[in-house]
Amino acid sequence: MPRDFSRTRRVADQIQRELAELIRDEIRDPRVGSVTVSEVRVTRDLGHAEIYVTGLGMDEATSRQMVDALNGAAGFLRRQLASRMRLRTVPAPRFHYDPVFDQGARLTRLIDDAVGDDNDQSTGD
């Protein structure tokens, strides 16, 4: 039976915290604005980290450009992580666009529109 809080999960959580700080403080690329690191998945051998990010207030195309910029800075970010974390090898980061926040905002707009339509119909009777 696996433990509830495995080593890979602890490493992923620490990488998520450190990367959020590093991206905010160290990345100067104009394509990278306000970034939310929504999830980090680390392989069992700690060789790779799949990092899911969303740009706040960005459309999907701009967010994908941001992901390209972060993947370009992956080597720099890995070196910075190595200096902050006490691991023999730091997982190689690979950034991916995470559409979850955009989908949530879209659903919220749809719900608000539906509620507004219902209110308009009920007052129009």
UniProtKB/TrEMBL annotation:
What's the domain of life for this entry?
Answer: Bacteria
Q: Does the keyword Cytoplasm apply?
A: yes
Key word Methyltransferase present: no
Q: Which InterPro entries match?
A: KH_dom-like_a/b (IPR015946), RbfA (IPR000238), RbfA_dom_sf (IPR023799)
The subcellular location is: Cytoplasm
Principal localization? cytoplasm
Record SUPFAM superfamilies: Ribosome-binding factor A, RbfA (SSF89919)
Name it: Ribosome-binding factor A
Protein's organism: Spiribacter pallidus
Gene that this polypeptide is encoded by = rbfA
